[in-house]
Write a structure and sequence with these properties.
Helix content is 77%, strand content 0%. By secondary structure, it is mostly helical. It has a domain of 135 residues. Helix 5 runs antiparallel to helix 6, helix 5 packs across helix 11 and helix 6 runs antiparallel to helix 7. The mean pLDDT is 80.
C-alpha cells in the first residue's frame, strides 16, 4: 500500500514537471510568434516605404528631364559664361583643387575685382530670368559688394604681409578684416572658422611675432612641403629614419649658417636685376592696388 502511494506521488511529481516544461515551451513559442508578427509588419512597412521612395524618385527624375529640356545647355549657361570672363583675366579653376581658385588666380581676381564683377553684373542683367525678383540695380549693387569684399581682403592680406609692421599697420590690418567681414555678413555669406579666427586673433599674432607674419603664410608652408618632398626623394633609399632626420637637420643647419647666407646674398647680387620698364610697370600696379584698397576701405563706415 505504501509503495503504491509512493509510486502515485512520484507520478504526480513527474506530471507537474512535465506541465511546467510544457508551459515554459508554450511561452517561448508564443513569444517567438509575436516577434515574427512584429518583424513581418516591419518588413511590410519597409516595403511600402521603398515603393513610395521609388515612385518619388521616378517622378523627380521625370521632372529633372523636363527641366533640362527648357534650360540652356552647359555651353550657354551663366556658369560657363562667367568662367569665360574669369579666363579672360587669366583666372582658371584648378581641377586638382576641387574647382577652387589657387595662388596667382586669387591674386588676379582681387586685383581686377572691379572690372570682373562689372562684366559679371552686365552678364547677369542681360540674361536675367523671368523668375528672378531682383532689379538690375539690385544685381549691380550685389556685384559691387562682392568686388568690395575681394578688395578689402586684398588689403587685409597686404597689411598682414608687411615686414616689421608698426602700430598703424596693426590698426589698418584689423580695419580691413573687420570691414571685409561686415560686408560678408550683410551679404549673408558663410564665414569660415579661419575668418572668425582671423578677425579675433590674427592681429594679436602679428603683434606677438617679431618682424610680423610676412613669411608665415600658405606659400611659405607650401614651399616647405616642397623642400620636405625633395629631402624625402633624395633620402628615400636610406633605411634609418633617424639617419634621415640627422642628414636633413645637418643640411638645413649648414644652409642657415651666416657664412652660407652671406655667400647666397653675394650670388644674388651678381644676378641681373629687373629692367626699368618692368620696375615702372610694377610700381604703377602697386599704386593702383593701393588706391583701390583705400577706396574700398573708406566706403565702409
Amino acid at each position: 500500500m505504501a509503495a503504491a502511494k509512493r509510486k502515485l506521488a512520484k507520478m504526480e511529481e513527474d506530471g507537474e514537471q512535465l506541465k511546467d516544461k510544457y508551459t515554459h515551451h508554450f511561452i517561448l513559442v508564443q513569444s517567438a510568434q509575436e516577434e515574427i508578427e512584429a518583424l513581418n509588419k516591419e518588413r511590410k512597412d519597409i516595403g511600402e516605404k521603398i515603393s513610395k521612395l521609388r515612385s518619388s524618385k521616378t517622378k523627380k527624375a521625370d521632372a529633372l528631364k523636363e527641366f533640362r529640356k527648357v534650360q540652356k545647355t552647359d555651353d550657354d549657361s551663366l556658369y560657363t559664361k562667367i568662367d569665360a570672363i574669369l579666363h579672360a583675366y587669366g583666372i582658371e579653376r584648378a581641377a586638382y583643387h576641387g574647382g577652387d581658385l589657387t595662388g596667382g588666380c586669387v591674386k588676379n581676381l582681387m586685383m581686377c575685382a572691379n572690372e570682373i564683377m562689372s562684366e559679371v553684373a552686365v552678364l547677369l542683367i542681360e540674361n536675367k530670368s523671368s523668375e528672378c525678383t531682383k532689379t538690375p540695380a539690385d544685381i549691380s549693387k550685389l556685384c559691387d559688394d562682392v568686388a568690395r569684399v575681394l578688395i578689402l581682403w586684398d588689403g587685409a592680406l597686404a597689411e598682414l604681409h608687411t615686414k616689421d609692421p608698426k602700430e598703424k599697420d596693426f590698426v589698418k590690418a584689423q580695419g580691413f578684416m573687420n570691414k571685409a567681414l561686415k560686408v560678408m555678413r550683410s551679404l549673408e555669406l558663410s564665414i569660415t572658422v579661419k575668418g572668425h579666427g582671423g578677425e579675433v586673433h590674427l592681429v594679436d599674432q602679428m603683434r606677438s611675432v617679431k618682424g610680423g607674419l610676412f613669411e608665415f603664410d600658405e606659400s611659405w608652408t607650401e614651399q616647405y612641403h616642397q623642400v620636405g618632398y625633395d629631402f624625402d626623394m633624395r633620402l628615400r633609399n636610406m633605411g634609418s629614419e633617424k639617419r634621415k632626420a640627422g642628414v636633413r637637420a645637418a643640411n638645413e643647419r649648414r644652409t642657415s649658417r651666416p657664412e652660407a647666407q652671406a655667400a647666397m646674398k653675394k650670388l644674388k647680387r651678381l644676378k641681373r636685376g629687373k629692367r626699368k620698364a618692368t620696375m615702372a610697370k610694377e610700381s604703377e600696379a602697386r599704386k593702383t592696388k593701393l588706391e583701390r584698397r583705400e577706396k574700398a576701405f573708406n566706403s565702409i563706415s
